[in-house]
Structure to design on (253 residues):
C-alpha cells in the first residue's frame, strides 16, 4: 500500500498530460487549458483513436480505470457511452468532471484504488485503461477486478509499458551504463525513474500471463514518442514496431 500512497501523491500534484510545458500560459482548468491538453495528447499519441475506436462503442456501459486529465474520457462521453470512471487521485476526478462539464457531458466518477473496484460482477460492457495499471503496487489485482466487473463477452482495451523497447534501452543507458552502474536491470531503472515510483514494464508474454483471467488476449507494440525523440529520424524510421514502449492490449472476457 505504501507504493500506492506514493503513486497517488505523485499524480495528485499533476495529472498526466498537464505539465507546464504542455499547457503553456493557459489558465488552469479553462477551456483553452483543456483543449491544449487534448491537442498535445493526440498529436504525440494519435494511435489512441485507432486502438480505442471510441465511436464504435456507442451505447455501451464503460468504465475507465485511471481517468487522469479526462481527455480520453471525454471521447467516450462524446461517443455516446454510459460512462463511469475511477482514479487514484482527487485531482484526476476533479479535472475530469470539470472537463466534461464544459461540454455538457457527465460521467459517474469516483476516487478509488482500482485494486478493489466498487461495482457488481458483470456490470460493464467495456473497460478502458491507458497507461495506468503498470503504476499500481499490484497490477494483477486490478486486472482481476477488471475481469470481474466485465460481463461475459465484454472487452478490455488499454495500454501498458513494454520492457523490450527502445525507450527502456535509452533509460538503461542513461541511468545505468552512463553513470557507471551497468548491473542495474531495465526493470529496476523503470521502477525508479519513470514517472511515479514503482512503475513496471512488461514483455508481451508477461502481459498475456497478467491478463490470464481473460480467455482471449492480444498484444500489439506501438512505437511511442519517447522511443524516437532522442535520435535522428533517418535512424528511428527503421525501428520495428516490436521495439515500442507502448503495448496495446485487447482482451475479451
Amino acid at each position: 500500500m505504501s507504493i500506492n500512497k506514493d503513486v497517488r501523491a505523485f499524480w495528485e500534484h499533476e495529472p498526466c498530460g498537464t505539465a507546464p510545458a504542455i499547457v503553456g500560459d493557459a489558465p488552469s482548468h479553462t477551456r483553452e487549458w483543456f483543449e491544449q491538453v487534448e491537442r498535445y495528447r493526440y498529436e504525440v499519441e494519435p494511435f489512441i483513436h485507432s486502438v480505442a475506436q471510441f465511436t464504435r462503442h456507442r451505447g455501451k456501459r464503460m468504465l475507465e480505470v485511471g481517468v487522469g486529465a479526462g481527455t480520453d474520457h471525454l471521447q467516450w462521453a462524446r461517443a455516446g457511452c454510459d460512462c463511469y470512471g475511477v482514479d487514484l487521485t482527487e485531482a484526476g476526478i476533479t479535472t475530469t468532471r470539470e472537463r466534461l462539464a464544459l461540454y455538457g457531458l457527465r460521467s459517474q466518477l469516483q476516487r478509488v484504488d482500482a485494486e478493489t473496484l466498487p461495482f457488481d460482477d458483470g456490470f460493464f460492457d467495456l473497460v478502458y485503461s491507458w497507461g495506468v495499471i503498470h503504476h499500481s503496487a499490484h497490477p494483477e489485482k486490478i486486472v482481476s477486478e477488471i475481469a470481474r466487473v466485465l460481463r461475459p463477452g465484454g472487452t478490455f482495451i488499454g495500454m501498458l509499458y513494454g520492457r523490450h523497447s527502445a525507450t527502456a534501452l535509452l533509460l538503461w543507458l542513461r541511468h545505468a551504463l552512463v553513470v557507471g552502474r551497468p548491473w542495474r536491470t531495465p526493470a529496476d531503472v523503470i521502477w525508479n525513474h519513470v514517472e511515479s515510483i514503482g512503475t513496471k514494464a512488461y514483455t508481451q508474454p508477461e502481459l498475456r500471463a497478467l491478463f490470464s483471467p481473460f480467455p482471449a488476449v492480444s498484444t500489439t507494440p506501438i512505437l511511442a514518442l519517447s522511443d524516437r525523440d532522442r535520435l535522428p529520424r533517418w535512424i528511428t524510421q527503421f525501428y520495428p514496431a516490436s521495439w515500442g514502449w507502448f503495448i496495446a492490449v485487447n482482451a475479451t472476457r
